[in-house]
């Protein structure tokens, strides 16, 4: 029996893992077409935009998994887009690969200084670009590639739905397991309650945002034994993230 105030989800199935979304920011239409075609063939979803302002808007709205960012763009330059993305908490860890026609070492270093994860100089081969993207994705989202994930002293066997902390078995409900699994795919990235609802519960059913707080609370209670550090960071007025410093312990 459920009461009127009961907003906890009872029968919700996990969503199938979504294809990673790549945001392509490039003003040359022919190159955009070529990139989109090849990325989609590799199993990515693609959103393409032509200028920097639009890139910043779309990055905010669609939360891509990776950005391919052309250096030379009309109005707001690629380097400025990179800087602005890095200055926002929600995109601080968003992987960015810069596309540049400039070969000068100083410019490359400037790009990497401003937070690009990698750069590739035009003209480039599609094979090389796709390899770079795979490498960045593996580095940023190692959990995607592996059934066994380790984060600090927490280990997750995704196939068996088994979680351990140190030598101790951690018993999680299905929702807490999916929450942890989702956060593990993006260490350090801050998710709003709405984003977590969408990723873990699915966007088709209405659930109150505070439900996320309830399940985060349960996850913490199950994970954190007496005197153990909390791997989950509460980011005031933003949401939750896995604490990257926890993994470095
Ligand atoms: Ca350009």
Spell out the key features of this protein.
249 residues, alpha/beta, Rossmann fold, Arc Repressor Mutant, subunit A, 2 domains, five-stranded parallel beta sheet, four-stranded antiparallel beta sheet, 10 helices, 11 strands, binds calcium ion
Estimated share of beta-strand residues: 15-25%
Strand order of the largest sheet: 2-1-3-4-5
**In CATH's first tier, which class of the largest domain applies?**
Alpha Beta
**What's the rounded overall pLDDT mean?**
84
> What's the end-to-end separation, in Å?
45 Å
Query: What would CATH call the architecture of the largest domain?
Result: 3-Layer(aba) Sandwich
Shape type: elongated
Class inferred from helices and paired strands: alpha/beta
Main beta-sheet strand count, sense and barrel state: 5 strands, parallel
Bound molecules: calcium ion
Percentage of helical residues?
40-55%
Query: What is the helix/strand order?
Result: EHEHEHEHEHHEEEEHHHEEH
| Low-confidence blocks of residues | 1-16
- Count helical runs: 10
Q: What integer value in Å does the Rg equal?
A: 20 Å
> What is the count of distinct domains?
2
Count of individual beta strands: 11
Query: The CATH topology of the largest domain, please?
Result: Rossmann fold
CATH H-level homologous superfamily name of the largest domain: Response regulator
